[in-house]
Amino acid sequence: MIPLRETTAGVSFKVRVQQRASRTAITGVLGDEILKIALAAPPVEGRANEALVRFFAELFDVPPSAIEIVSGGQSRNKVVCVAGANIAHVRDRLTV
Hints:
There is one protein chain. This protein is α+β, with helices and mostly antiparallel strands. The protein is 22% helix and 35% strand. It is built from two helices and six strands.
């Protein structure tokens, strides 16, 4: 399972995004540290980041405003934070 980091802001973890996939889904784990996500959205005008936020908001059952891309906004490698969540809730939802 990928490492999760709990802070006062929430729980953060690393993801690697593949844009323009046939569907949006968790596709696996890269090494032991990075969650792989396939996104149907293209990397144009922030659509892939918006799709990533919506996907995680639905997955963790939180509003989209609770999902923040902490770093890597223009990169395939990102750090995502789920505000107001705890490690147990995030780990429970991240079944790969």
